[in-house]
Amino acid sequence: xxFGAKMCELMTSQNVSLRRLAIMINYDPGYxxxxxxxxxxxxxxxxxxxxxxxxxRGELVALASGVTSTExxxxxxxxxxxxxxxxxxxxxxxxxxxxKRRAALQLIAxxxxxxxxxxxxxxxxxxxxxxxxxxxxxxxxxxxxxxxxYDYRLRTSPAGTLIEDLTTxxxxxxxxxxxxxxxLQKAGLLRVSSALTGLLAIELGDSGNPRAARVAxxxxxxxxxxxxxxxxxxxxxxxxxxxxxFTQRSPQVVTQLADEAxxxxxxxxxxxxxxxxxxxxxxxAVEGDREHSLGGLTDSQSTFDRLPGSAAHESVFGYRETxxxxxxxxxxxxxxDARADASLSEARSLYPQAALAPRANLxxxxxxxxxxxREIGIGLEHAVQTLQGHTxxxxxxxxxxxxxLSAIPAKARSLPVARELxxxxxxAA
Length: 429
Known about the structure:
By secondary structure, this protein is mainly α. The protein has helices spanning 3-13, 18-25, 29-36, 44-53, 59-63, 94-113, 121-125, 127-132, 140-156, 163-176, 183-206, 210-227, 230-246, 251-265, 271-286, 290-305, 321-335, 340-350, 356-372, 376-389, 395-407, 416-424. It folds into three domains: 3-132, no CATH class; 140-348, Tetratricopeptide repeat domain (Serine Threonine Protein Phosphatase 5, Tetratricopeptide repeat); 356-429, no CATH class. This is XRE family transcriptional regulator.
């Protein structure tokens, strides 16, 4: 008996459909259909998983190395028809087709209702085409392009709009990790997974979900560590440290994340190292430690000057002069430093108009600077106008607006514009 025949026998005896089995083990049903018809060799990991789920007591594992192929004509056994799809019929792929029809109906219904497309529906509909193309081979380059696309959209879309799509793609990647693949290919997939999860963490934080963001950063960090990519390991921790400042996590957490990034960097200049140094400077600025915040700027400028080349385009994974000037303005605004105006002007000239969150945050830094320089009414009006007109919120923006409220002198807190700012600031009492 072949592996596929035994698999079908077990599925039939246990009343398990192909679709249900695919959901149980998080594999593509089209791929499992080919396994059940002995059209594909069975990876050891999948054989062990199927053996466990179908309670085969070692039989499927034993048969896995002896799979024959209907394509070579070495077996005359009929492919199994999964339970719960069709009871009879001349077409060997009826069960697979039924799964695809249901997925197509889900897709059409979701689009017609304007609701979310169920995870995996598009992949299931296209499984036949993908099988014909031999697409069980991982296309890592395509996944890297997906990361670049999200990176661009993150900077040009309202906060939170990418959470659903990012989550769906991360779920889709989960099935890929169950495939048998060479170590280098798995490392590449882990890099992509870490990057996507990091982008999801940023989206969650920017849309006001700090706890979910914290969980996502933890997963992104572990995936980066498993990939072995030093620069990614540094970047994840450095960017997470920045977010920890913006979401007002404990200073100890910020310091630990930044210190880990700096230790892993081991003196090698990179965007991640710059973000870790920036996080230290931001924390000192927020805590009113002028000396260490300005010292942090000096450290980051030294690292920036040693950065090999500069990204051609804005990217959350890079660190261009725009980010350096943004951080400089942040520190000067909190310190009430006279250099804030010049730094702000330079940063604004560098950022493109499409950089929604950074430009809005620069406007809030300007309001902060005005208030610290006793131009309270003008600063409050500017902050309110910025919050009313911005189209992408951000964790940094939440922190800045809260800091502006804290900087208002007691006698000005009863002003109508101050109360309006309070109403616009998330979490303000």
